[in-house]
Write a structure and sequence with these properties.
The complex is a heterodimer. By secondary structure, chain A is mainly α. Helix content of chain A is 84%, strand content 0%. In chain A, helix 2 runs antiparallel to helix 3 and helix 7 packs antiparallel against helix 9. Chain B is α/β, with parallel strands linked by helices. In chain B, 37% of the residues lie in helices and 26% in strands. In chain B, the strands form two sheets. Chain B has a six-stranded mixed sheet, with helices on both faces. In chain B, strands 2-1-4-5 form a four-stranded antiparallel sheet, covered by helices on one side. The relative contact order of chain B is 0.17. The mean pLDDT of chain B is 94. Classes of the chains: A mainly alpha, B alpha/beta. At the A-B interface, helix 6 and helix 7 of A face helix 2, strand 6 and helix 3 of B.
């Protein structure tokens, strides 16, 4: 007899659990419908994702270009054998400019730099996205430059000498011999910088850019529902970072081919 | 000026690092086809002297003529001259991110505009000579020290140099690998290549050298044929040095 009542109890309990799940699910889908579908608010989210990716990718390109140039100037200055002559004087001036750039950019918050770009430099800009690409690119360049410089210094000087002794000039030696080895050495640190950059772009809303964070926040404000928009925003950042890490991992494995 | 068979002429070469004067006025000549071995105690300036010859070290004073061109002239295109001055380093300095073959063909392809086919054919022929043809697709990290140095030698030879500079080519090698590298250098000497070799291998120096230069405290203290240097050393510093190394 006991057995039967037990079965019925378990059955009842399962039924309750099921009802709970379905009501929660219905509430959840209703919430999704309310938060994202109604008023086409998901479109705002898509714009946000797109802008965040645009700003990150654009800033990345600018940052790497600035980084290579600044790192090349700084390490040439450090490496330069002859400490005299016209060429060295120019190098000295360029090196001083690079140092000022690094100090100012790394010494001030990126949000402030972004606002200065938008409200003081590009006063007539209507679209904040290019301004954000500019500001984040200049900012990232300073960090990437120091990462690259560290990488160049980590490449054994014998590599440089071997290149020069074959008849390569300074630039050719850098391009064919030093920089490929530097890239391999700095890739993990560089990946770190890219991740940081992606997340830093979340302050783009300060200059009215509809980026991912701003989109989530604006939807939350309009619907008075914070749970879903903010967690969705967080999840999207997480997924993008995971994809980025995965891609860098593939690249790293390919570059590691030579060290068995 | 210089006679026709002089390949490198060094006049009053001085090199200072900050305040320390390492080379204090060196005068010498290297003739075509000559094998010059430079010996001396560590810190005597013999490696610095060799590195000044292709301006890996910038000389402080004096002149170096390569085929009658003053390469110490700031206006001289040192990159063009370096293509004709092969150099082999103590630490091999192979490019670790390239295969053996790529190490050898990159300079001829980029600098001499040689086609990939021609460059590879040439590289393979040279690898064949030093017994490493089967390692063409290996990366430097997969080679032994002796193999690395043999590759470094043929990498320099791919540029058809007129002179080869060796900076202690066997000093970083395990003893059992010294022989294979010296063998390659000896073959090269026999083929008529002009060479300047800094080494601590006295037996090898005696065997391969046409002339030996003994550098002490930044000057050439004595020079002569191997017979003169080893058989009848005159300078007391050389006698002292030889008594320690032989």
């Amino acid at each position: 007899m006991h057995f039967r009542t037990d079965v019925i109890k378990i059955f009842d309990w399962l039924k309750q659990v099921w009802t709970f799940i379905t009501t929660q699910w219905n509430a959840f889908t209703h919430e999704i419908d309310f938060v994202f579908i109604q008023g086409d608010r998901y479109k705002q989210m898509l714009t946000g994702i797109l802008n965040t990716l645009k700003i990150t990718a654009g800033a990345l390109v600018i940052g790497v270009l600035i980084g290579i140039v600044v790192a090349a100037i700084r390490s040439s200055y450090d490496k330069s054998g002859a400490k005299h002559g016209f060429g060295f004087a120019i190098l000295k001036i360029l090196n001083a400019i690079c140092k000022v750039y690094l100090t100012v950019i790394r010494g001030t918050p990126v949000v402030v730099q972004l606002m200065i770009s938008y409200f003081l430099i590009f006063v007539s800009a209507r679209d904040g996205v290019p301004v954000a690409i500019f500001a984040f690119g200049i900012n990232s360049g300073a960090y990437v430059a120091e990462i690259f410089r560290g990488g160049i210094m980590a490449v054994d000087n014998g590599q440089f000498e071997a290149g020069r002794s074959l008849g390569f000039n300074y630039l050719q030696t850098m391009i064919h011999i030093v920089i490929p080895q530097m890239f391999k050495a700095v890739l993990p640190t560089l990946c770190n910088e890219f991740i940081a950059l992606l997340k830093e772009t979340s302050v783009a809303g300060y200059v009215g850019v509809m980026d991912l964070t701003k989109a989530g926040n604006s939807i939350a404000g309009r619907t008075y529902s914070y749970f879903l928009p903010l967690l969705t925003v967080a999840a999207i950042y997480l997924v993008v970072v995971m994809i980025l890490t995965w891609l860098v991992g593939i690249l790293e494995r390919r570059l590691r081919k030579s060290d068995h | 000026m210089t006679t026709n068979d002089t390949l490198i002429k060094v006049e009053n070469l001085v090199k200072s690092f900050e305040k320390i004067e390492v080379l204090k006025g060196i005068d010498t000549e290297i003739k075509k086809g000559e094998v010059v071995v430079i010996i001396g105690a560590s810190g005597s300036g013999k490696s610095t002297f060799l590195r000044c010859l292709n301006r890996l070290e910038e000389s402080t004073d004096g002149h170096i003529y390569f085929k009658d061109n003053d390469i110490t002239d700031p206006k001289a295109n040192i990159n063009i001259h370096r293509q004709k001055m092969g150099m082999v380093f103590q630490q091999f300095n192979l490019f670790p991110h390239m295969t053996v073959l790529k190490n050898m063909i990159i300079a001829p392809m980029k600098l001499l505009k040689m086609s990939r086919q021609d460059a590879e054919a040439k590289a393979m022929a040279l690898l064949e000579k030093v017994g490493l043809a089967d390692r063409a697709d290996a990366y430097p990290s997969q080679l032994s020290g002796g193999q690395k140095q043999r590759v470094a030698i043929v990498r320099a030879l791919c540029m058809d140099p007129e002179v080869m500079l060796f900076d202690e080519p066997t000093s970083a090698l395990d003893p059992e690998m010294v022989g294979e590298v010296l063998g390659v250098i000896k073959d090269l000497a026999a083929s008529g290549m002009t060479m300047a070799i800094v080494t601590h291998e006295m037996g090898f120096a005696r065997e391969v050298a046409d002339r030996i230069i003994f550098i002490d405290e930044g000057v050439i203290a004595e020079e002569g044929t191997p017979e003169e240097i080893f058989g009848n050393p005159k300078c007391p510093r050389l006698k002292d040095f030889l008594s320690k190394v032989l």
